[in-house]
């Protein structure tokens, strides 16, 4: 059985795609079989990992039932990827039949035995694509930028989670809030931490101990078609993502020994 995690926040620029690619790469490095699914019509996950997303078949073809899911999966250094591109932006209008919330889940059920982890990158919206991600997932990770203003607005995510739990997927839970672009000197103020802890509490969850520090290597990595884990393994954010994996699955997926 795969563990399916959606990386979600209806705000853009908080680090959803960065977190998705880093988790994929870190888990793959530890020997897990991983699949990343891009549900954002901007196609950033595949693009950042070096795929030519303009010309390939995508998750859109799979959700429409036009292509078998296995035919659309592409290999990258950071794991297998089901890419997306701008064609997926018509989903809200096009996927309008009953059962539209299950389009992704029904495809993933076929892959359950092939992957240890399936990580879903989501769009900066709470729409039919987000709901498809929440229905297919076991759990959610919510990256946030540690500034007071960007921490507001979580009540909308909570409503979406509650709706999905009530109607489609009662086992959905929030693994935690991930503070990203974290500057320990500037950001570690009580207000930010207290507010993020309050938000986590509202979601029956917690703020991860691991916080992802800011570094230019995160912005540079996509130009090399790699996650920050592959591009700059010793950078602060790469080390922080490794400690997040330790925090979540430490004993199950130990870091490979540096000496081998
Ligand atoms: N820890 C970090 N340090 C520096 N830049 C970051 C960090 N996390 C994300 N970024 C930058 O912020 C921008 C938004 O990140 P991204 O992962 O694309 O967010 P989202 O998918 O939520 O829109 C990108 O330009 C990315 O390079
Ligand atoms: Mg993104």
Assembly annotation? single chain
Order of helices and strands: EHEHHHEEHHEHEHHEHHHHH
Terminal CA distance reads 29 Å
What binds here, in terms of ligands, is: adenosine-5'-diphosphate, magnesium ion
Detail the poorly predicted runs.
none
Main structural class? alpha/beta
What is the name of the CATH class? Alpha Beta
* CATH-derived architecture: 3-Layer(aba) Sandwich
Gross geometry: globular
The pLDDT mean sits at 93
What is the count of structural domains?
Answer: 1
Explain what the structure shows.
With 260 residues, the protein is of the alpha/beta class. The chain has a single domain (3-249), classed as Rossmann fold (3-Layer(aba) Sandwich), CATH 3.40.50. Helices cover 41% and strands 13% of the residues. The chain has helices at residues 16-29, 44-48, 59-64, 69-72, 91-94, 103-108, 128-136, 148-151, 154-167, 184-187, 190-202, 216-220, 228-231, 236-249; strands at residues 3-7, 34-38, 74-76, 79-82, 117-121, 139-144, 173-179. The chain has a 7-stranded mixed β-sheet, with helices on both faces. The radius of gyration is 17 Å and the shape is globular. Bound molecules: adenosine-5'-diphosphate and magnesium ion (MG). Magnesium ion binds at residues 16-17, 40, 44, 121.
In short:
With 260 residues, the chain is of the alpha/beta class.
Based on the model shown, name its key terms.
Rossmann fold, 41% helix, binds magnesium ion, 260 residues, 7-stranded mixed beta sheet, 14 helices
